[in-house]
Design a protein that fits this description.
This protein has 210 residues and is α+β, with helices and mostly antiparallel strands. It has 3 helices and 9 strands, in the order αβαβββββββαβ. Strands 1, 2, 4, 5, 6, 7 and 9 form a 7-stranded mixed sheet that branches. It is globular and about 55 Å long. It starts with 13 loop residues before the first helix and ends in a 6-residue tail after the last strand. GO terms for molecular function: nucleic acid binding; zinc ion binding. This is Zinc finger, CCHC-type. Keywords: Metal-binding, Zinc, Zinc-finger. Pfam families: zf-CCHC_4 (PF14392).
């Protein structure tokens, strides 16, 4: 559910906006509350409520791929990157997940993950989990309604693609190991072969192959 209520005031309170951003607002009935700043040169109908921000966790990614460069490549499959949970140039994380704050189109099905093509091993599934994810439809993967109210039942979408497993517990900034960056030539290489690596990612959900 996208809330388009507007609060009027004399001007923005930066501290309040920061506090609201930290809260990642979800209402008591598990609806998602979207708050947008009103540009001074825009009318109400021009304010865009299609994009909202979520912290997304990337699970089942092999350790060698957990670099900042790879996180940016994965984040590029979303409409926009807001923040990466990294604190140095090329750290490798200890806790087994990458974490990024991205913009999500609330009118599209949620992205569930992608298949990672590995050079010497079979392809593996890498899943996305969303922090503070409100109730959503397990059939079509969209926010704003649940299964019984779904109008997209005939879209040919595979059953079982969406479920409660896409909800993640909120994490604090994770510890990182500031060691050498990954040397994996099939994914991390940023010059030669960069496009080949990008084409090896297939994103399930609203978008297709990169």
């Amino acid at each position: 559910m996208a809330c388009e209520d507007v609060v009027f005031g004399e001007g923005p309170d930066d501290l309040l906006l920061q506090e609201l951003d930290i809260l990642e607002l979800t209402t008591e009935d598990e609806s998602h509350l979207m708050l947008k700043e009103w540009p001074v040169d825009a009318i109400l109908e021009e304010i865009d409520f299609t994009l909202s921000e979520f912290w997304v966790q990337v699970h089942n990614l092999p350790l060698a791929y957990m670099t900042k460069a790879n996180a940016e490549k994965i984040a590029a499959t979303f409409p926009g990157l807001v923040e990466l949970d990294f604190d140095s140039e090329e750290p490798v994380r200890w806790n087994g997940v990458l974490r990024m704050k991205v913009k999500v189109n609330v009118e599209d099905p949620l992205k569930t993950g992608f298949y990672l093509q590995r050079k010497y091993k079979p392809s593996s599934w890498v899943s996305f989990k969303y922090e503070r994810l409100p109730d959503f439809c397990f059939h079509c993967g969209r926010l704003g309604h649940v299964n019984k109210d779904c109008k997209f039942r005939d879209d040919g979408r595979k059953k079982g693609s969406y479920g409660h497993w896409m909800k993640a517990n909120q994490l604090k900034k994770a510890s990182v190991f500031k060691g050498a960056p990954s040397k994996n030539p099939n994914f991390h290489k940023r010059k030669e072969g960069e496009e080949e690596a990008a084409r090896s990612i297939h994103v399930e959900g609203a978008s297709a192959k990169l």
